[in-house]
Amino acid sequence: MRQSVSAIRVLSFALLATATLVGTTGCFKRGAKGDYALAPEVRPLEIPPDLNAPGNPAAQVPVLASQAATSAPAQAPAANNAGFTVPGSKEEVFAKVGTALESVEGVKIASKAQLLGSFDVNYEGSDFLVRVVAVEAGAYISAVDPRGLPATGPAPTKLLGELKGKLAQ
């Protein structure tokens, strides 16, 4: 009998301690306000401050191909001044660019993807992509660095100059 009274005391003390802890932490407070009280589907999104700043390139939404066709497609690629436009379809120009790249001394083509319109090249110690994109005036040829930004270093600029000369013939 003495053991059952002792067990009841221990159990009641544990229940009292748990109730006190839950009551003081605010888990079951009535009238809780703030976004955390809302259902997860209704809570506002939390955007990190560096992505919320205007002018951040990471926060810009890319233009879809369907949207680019309705807007001025020749204007968008020309804005970075790291390429040039050649008349003809994307497929024709892609084949010509491949032939021209093979004829340039020092160019190593690591891979090519016709559907994406890109050549992964190494030239004068620099690795970058040579891209062919269909635009209203033909096909736009540009160099893109591994980060996806226009490649404006000396090697990509020199290679684009040589390609422009070879494709103008």
How would you describe what is shown here?
There is one protein chain. By secondary structure, the protein is α+β, with helices and mostly antiparallel strands. It has a domain at 71-168: Outer membrane protein assembly factor BamC (TATA-Binding Protein, 2-Layer Sandwich), CATH 3.30.310. The chain contains six helices and five strands. The chain has helices at residues 2-25, 49-52, 65-70, 75-78, 90-103, 154-168; strands spanning 83-86, 107-113, 118-123, 126-135, 138-144. The chain has a five-stranded antiparallel beta sheet with strand order 1-5-4-3-2, with helices on one face. Strand 2 and strand 3 form a beta hairpin. The longest helix has 24 residues, at 2-25. It is elongated, with a radius of gyration of 31 Å. The N and C termini lie far apart (107 Å). The model is unreliable at 72-80 (pLDDT under 50).
Q: Biggest sheet, strands in spatial order?
A: 1-5-4-3-2
CATH class of the domain at 71-168: Alpha Beta
CATH topology of the domain at 71-168: TATA-Binding Protein
SSE order? HHHHEHEEEEH
Biggest sheet: strands, sense, closure? 5 strands, antiparallel
Content-based structural category: alpha+beta
* CATH homology-level superfamily of the domain at 71-168: Outer membrane protein assembly factor BamC
Attribute tags:
169 residues, alpha+beta, TATA-Binding Protein
Q: What's the layout of helices and strands?
A:
Blueprint lengths: L1 H24 L23 H4 L12 H6 L4 H4 L4 E4 L3 H14 L3 E7 L4 E6 L2 E10 L2 E7 L9 H15 L1
Antiparallel strand pairs: 1-5, 2-3, 3-4, 4-5
